[in-house]
Amino acid sequence: MKRNTLVLSVLVLALSVATFAGDIKGKVSGVSGASVVWVEAIPGKTFPAPEKHPVIDQKGLMFHPHILATPVGTTVEFLNSDNVAHNVFWTSISGNKKLGHNLGTWPRGEKKPFKFEQAGVAPLLCNVHPEMAAYIVVTPTPYFAETDASGNFTISGVPDGKYTVTAWHEGAKNQSKPVSVTGEATVDFTLTK
Amino acid sequence: MDSVFGKRLCSLLVGLAIVAGLVLLLPKKGNAIPAFSRQYGTSCSTCHVDFPKLNDFGKAFKDAGFKFPKDDETYLKVPPVMLGAPAQKELWPKTIWPGTIPGLPPIGLRMNNFFQVVGRNRGRFGAYSAPSSIPQFIPRTDFETGLFSIFTAGNFGSEIAFWVDDDISVAGGNGNGGLGDGYLKFVNIGRFMKLPKDSLSLRAGQFELDLPFTQARSYNLSGYDIYQQANIGAMNSMFSQQNVNNGFAFANVAQGVELSGGHSYGGYHYSIAVVNQNTSGVDQGSNNSAYVPSATGSNNGGVGFASDSNFKDIYGRFAYRFNLERDSASRNDVQAAGPMGPRDHTSLRLGTYYFYGRSVQRYLGLTPAPASASTVLTAREPFYRVGGDFNFNYREFNAYGLFMYGRDHNLLPVDSTGALIPLPISTILPVGFFHGTAAKFSGGFIQTDYMPLPWFMATMRWDSVNASADRINGLAGSTAGSFNSPFNSTRNRFTPGVQFLIHANIKTSFEYQFRPQQAVLVVTDPVTGLPVATNPFRTNAATVGLEFVY
Lengths: 193, 550
Fold this sequence. Notes:
The structure holds 2 protein chains of 2 kinds.
Chain A: H1 2-20, E1 22-29, E2 36-39, E3 55-59, E4 62-64, E5 67-71, E6 75-80, E7 89-90, E8 101-102, E9 111-115, E10 120-125, E11 133-139, E12 144-146, E13 152-158, E14 161-168, E15 175-181, E16 184-186, E17 189-190
Parallel strand pairs in A: 1-16, 1-17, 3-6, 5-11
Antiparallel strand pairs in A: 1-13, 2-12, 2-14, 3-4, 6-9, 7-8, 10-11, 14-15
Chain B: H1 3-25, H2 35-40, E1 48-50, E2 53-54, H3 56-63, E3 81-82, E4 100-101, E5 107-118, E6 141-155, E7 160-170, E8 173-186, E9 201-208, E10 231-232, E11 245-246, E12 253-262, E13 267-276, E14 312-323, H4 328-332, E15 336-338, E16 341-343, E17 347-366, E18 374-394, E19 397-408, E20 411-414, E21 432-435, E22 439-453, E23 456-466, H5 468-478, E24 490-503, E25 506-513, E26 517-518, E27 521-524, E28 531-534, E29 537-538, E30 541-549
Antiparallel strand pairs in B: 1-2, 3-4, 5-6, 5-30, 6-7, 7-8, 8-9, 9-12, 10-11, 12-13, 13-14, 14-17, 15-16, 17-18, 18-19, 19-22, 20-21, 22-23, 23-24, 24-25, 25-30, 26-29, 27-28
């Protein structure tokens, strides 16, 4: 009897945890290449800044990675692995020019950190090589995902609730949709330029 | 509204409308993708400020033999084709040293078009029309196709660089442009002698001399006057004549070899070139000798050429560029570390150059008495050009200039009695030459460029050439109908201009040239009895250029 009670309790607990941490799945179509999908800010809820510092590298006259999605409060480190001089700047974050910033010049091989305190998309540029471009998608919550080659995505660990989910792709218009998560939810996007 | 203000506003609006119209009419798509852009997948502006003007990185790229100064292979988006595995090097000399060729044919094309308006003077030229001849005419407005050029450049591995450019078409004609530069450059051959890096390179072929400021790859619509100055001595019999007919000009290409070293983006730079001399002897086209093979190919006996002399002209240049950044690491780097990103250095370059050559003229003459047999006399006229230059750069402002002094020896023909023979030689045959008054000229230019925006550059240049022989020759010519002779010994030209980059590879330029005064009418001065030019005028010209490379 005791054993049955224990098994039942574990089952209920597991089910309740599963209910609290669901997935948002879906597909982004209409565009080619990677997109980023995230859950918009949740009123009354804040999240600690991630301890991990992702790196944006400049190598072979290209930014690596081309798209970096990371939650607000993240410190991103910028590295130049090339033997030519580079620079990193962004003119705005999601169109807000007050958030534009220029990291200037720093020694090659060294990392220069910058903490992104505002959510939005920062289009990275290099003032020496105008063809270089990359994007840092600073998400308001830690619930985000990057699409695979087919446009599919899964945002894991989203608590049950009602949210607004936004999809972004470089060169396309953002699209937001409401979604209700109860264990698992599906939302698809068709982006246009 | 104030009428003056209204007119200015109208002028401004018309100007803006023209610029806007020009921009709207031009293609919208396409980035700069000439030869190197394609290879490295990068924009023209990686190497150029305002093509073809090089920035500091572009200078380093050129110095390194058309490749990135370090780790070139990591930047190539199109891998080179191997002409042998690298391990073949271990077999040498029992195998050919392995090299590479670019993965894509590194071809760039350049085309430009012009529109020109010349000052209000064409009516004056009618006075010089010879009977039954076509009236002299300078078009008041003119659309003109410029150069359509092909250029190819790159690196064959083992630090061997190449460059070939050819004007396929000039002014709408086919194949009349000819070869510009065509050379191989063996970069950093000093490494075989354990010399410091980049201290010795060798270039061979046909090339523009290592001029302080390039003419062949100039971004200006009009050339530098002093570079086009050939020294033609005074030929007017009213003046002391000069037997100087030296067509050499710095704008000309040279054939030969050149040793060079250093960097053009900082520190020292030198070059020493040995090139063909300027002669009036048998040119290749007139080479009919059965004993001298021709360079023109199989029907003419294969590869060879008629040579007029074993003597070669010599050109030398030395310059030192002081990068003026405070931070030593930045000062010695290819580009300076600015607070808003890498940029060109604040710098001052000082340089000097010297050209020594012989201008050869040949005459039908006589051997000295008593033999007095017919012979060919050769006047090997020594000449030199010497000068200095500076180039100052501060952020978006660039000022540079050059001074040149030219001197030709002047060998005057004498007859068997030692008396000077009036020029041009006609009935009396010379037996030798006598050193007369040297033919000299001097001059130069100063130019300032200002780029307030990465796509907009304002330029201002002053060209000045002082050559009394030019004026004298012009006066002599004017009696036979010349309408383009300089009025003064010094020809000044002021050329303000603007250049707009529509894309990194498309540019429109405008220049207004305040030309030198020219003589219209020649009368005889009643006091001196010498010809005097009157009614001077200036054929100022406004030129618009539209250029693209791809």
